[in-house]
Amino acid sequence: MKTFAKRCITAVALATLMVGTANAHRAWFVPSSTVVSGDNAWVTIDGAVSNNLFFPDHRPMQIAQISVTAPDGKPIQIANATVGQYRTTFDIKLEQKGTYRIAQANTGLNASYKEGAETKRWRGTMAEYVAQGIDKKPGVELTATSRRVETFVTNGAPSEIKSTAKGLELVAGPTHPNDLYSGEEATFKMLDNGKPAANVEVTLIQGGDRYRAQAGEVKLKTGADGTLKLKLENAGMYWLEAESKGKTTLEGKTLNSQSTYVAVLEVLPG
Questions:
Q1: pTM
Q2: Considering its fold, how many domains does the chain have in total?
């Protein structure tokens, strides 16, 4: 009975400590393995949005929005998909040699405007924006948004990660995302709409923050050429997030832009 009471007290104490360190819900994909080999290789992917990394406790990723890109750049089908209360699970067969991208990516237009003292929110296409008269609303602000959440799995030797030229993304530069080791410096390149993403703030958090009093965030920033350098002393799964804001042009209109990128990377013992 005393042991049970101590466990309850400890759980409450940990939850209290984490209240101040937990961020907003984080989206992620975690593969059963990031590097495999063979002609009949499979991996299982878990996808969720959660408070702690990588413990599904909020909601699953939506299957309809998930894509898997093979090393040759073509999409492949996922298998054995299951959507649960808190996470989505599916398998992929890695028939080709090289690197696969497992991602959920979306773009859209968001607007905010005033109606009296109330702030209204709107989402849709540019055609709907004009047809519905949103562009005539007082104080309207239109923002083009892009969000990509992904992870990488390699069968055999790593292959090139080609830019989609859509929003923020990470490519090898020269370090490959499936070739990370503790204690070694890694160099990536971040792109925004296919161009170097300069001075973008990046956050890194190691998984298992549920068991730490502090999340242990590592703050980084890309260089003028989009280069991102990092050196992690501990092996494990890491969650990387980057966000950029600026201006863009769409159908002759200048509007705000906001792009968010998330990747889950595995760092192996050096």
A1: 0.86
A2: 1
